[in-house]
Amino acid sequence: GKELADKLKEDKVDVIVSLVAKFGRNVVLDIFWETQKIEESGGLMIMNGARRRSSGGVLFHLLRGTKDEKIRAKVAEFFEERQNIDSRREKKREKGVKEFTQERSLSEKDLVKKRNIVEQEQVFNISALFE
User: Fold this and answer.
1) How many CB atoms lie within 10 A of CB 73?
2) CA distance 34 to 15
3) What are the residues facing 52 on neighbouring strands?
4) Quick one: pLDDT at residue 30?
């Protein structure tokens, strides 16, 4: 999986590794060789024609468009699982940011309380000089 991701110049190594785990080495390698042929002949444009697909994007496109019904069903399941994983990661990230912000605001409140206490102590110490 990692070697394949490297050959595809794909940043999302975990997705390629998961593909190999889900579909098996032979299925992914067959699609990889098709991807290489397409890349050698100039690549594949995205739907609106604005840019070329990445090698990984070509591989995913070929997987989604395969004629093999079993593979296509697995592809739909795979991308649904990936979407759920990405969604959970995003929720965790959002929760982490929220908790960090809450902790930070609590820390700021604590600092204000401590500063007030120190200021009060200084006032008491100064007033003791005049007694």
Assistant:
1) 10
2) 19
3) 45
4) 92
Band of the pLDDT at 110, cuts 50, 70, 90?
low
DSSP the chain: -HHHHHHHT-S-HHHHHHHHHHH-HHHHHHHHHHHHHHHHTT--B-TTSSSBPPHHHHHHHHHHT-S-HHHHHHHHHHHHHHHHHHHHHHHHHHHHHHHHHHHHHHHHHHHHHHHHHHHHHHHHHHHHHT-
Lowest-confidence range among 28-32, 87-91, 120-124?
120-124
Largest separation between any pair of C-alpha atoms in the chain: 95
pTM exceeds 0.70: no
pLDDT of residue 33: 94
Count CA atoms within 13 Å of residue 119 on its CB side: 6
Identify which of 58, 57, 62, 55 has the alpha carbon closest to the alpha carbon of residue 27. Answer: 62
pLDDT at 15: 84
- 11, two tokens: 């940043």
How far is Cα 68 from Cα 113, in angstroms, rounded to an integer?
67
